Amino acid sequence: MDAAHMGADLEKVLITEEEIQTRLGELAEQIWADYEGKDLLLVGVLKGAVVVMADLMRALPGTAPMDWMAISSYGSGTKSSGVVRILMDLRTDITDKHVLIVEDIIDSGLTLSWIKTNLESRSPASVEICTLLRKPEVAKVEIPVKYVGFDIPPEFVVGYGLDYDERYRNLRVVGTLAPHVYS
Ligand code: IMP
Ligand code: MG
């Protein structure tokens, strides 16, 4: 789905497809250099990270396995509850592995902070975070993020994996929604 297919539902485009691809390419090079010779496992958080993972892993100049977790966070609203529940756990034993969590967005940071702590309790060699988007102004917890695609303003965004009530995940760009969509 392109921005044009959104019609009146789209308020504005924040990040274009090309900007996303360029940035993911840079991050992939950096990640590959940092993890050279290490047992790297990419861990995606469903469902938002699906699109980022697909593009980031293909941008890597080498291969690495991936695994997925599903957790509940927002429900269908636009505010983080901080209540996290594992809906689907990893199938991989991460003992001694270098885990890189791949996320779509860090808003309050509550979700990622919880996941990171949970994974760190399983004796991995390391746990780091790569997120396409970060809203720095609304961070509720201090969470070190090694790789950030873009810092964005504290607005609710959709597209590139991010949804509003399960819609617009397939939008190619990252953008904001017109007010009428929420009412
Ligand atoms: P946090 O716990 O506040 O950091 O929220 C993390 C999760 O909330 C993300 O993985 C998203 O699924 C969702 N989320 C946060 N901000 C947005 C947004 O602007 N648009 C869509 N989903 C969001
Ligand atoms: Mg998500």
Written account of the structure:
This protein has 183 residues and is of the alpha/beta class. It is built from four helices and nine strands. It has a six-stranded mixed beta sheet with strand order 4-3-2-5-6-7, with helices on both faces. Strands 1-9-8 form a three-stranded antiparallel beta sheet. Helix 1 packs across helix 2 (50-59). The mean pLDDT is 93. Bound molecules: inosinic acid and magnesium ion. Residues 45, 48, 104 line the site of magnesium ion.
Major sheet: order of its strands? 4-3-2-5-6-7
Q: Output the helix-strand order.
A: EHEHEEEHEEEEH
The count of β-strands is: 9
Biggest sheet overview: 6 strands, mixed
Low-confidence stretches: none
Determine Rg (CA atoms, Å).
16 Å
Cα separation of the termini: 22 Å
Q: Would you tell me the overall average pLDDT?
A: 93
Note the total helix count: 4
Write out key terms for the chains shown.
about 25% helix; binds inosinic acid; about 30% strand; binds magnesium ion; alpha/beta; six-stranded mixed sheet; three-stranded antiparallel sheet; about 180 residues
What's the arrangement of secondary structure elements?
Blueprint: E1 10-15, H1 17-34, E2 40-46, H2 50-59, E3 66-72, E4 85-88, E5 98-106, H3 110-120, E6 126-134, E7 147-151, E8 157-158, E9 174-177, H4 179-182
Parallel strand pairs: 2-3, 2-5, 5-6, 6-7
Antiparallel strand pairs: 1-9, 3-4, 8-9
Helix pairs in contact: 1-2
The structure holds inosinic acid (IMP) and magnesium ion (MG).
Q: In brief, what are we looking at here?
A:
The protein is α/β, with parallel strands linked by helices and 183 residues long. Helices cover 23% and strands 29% of the residues.
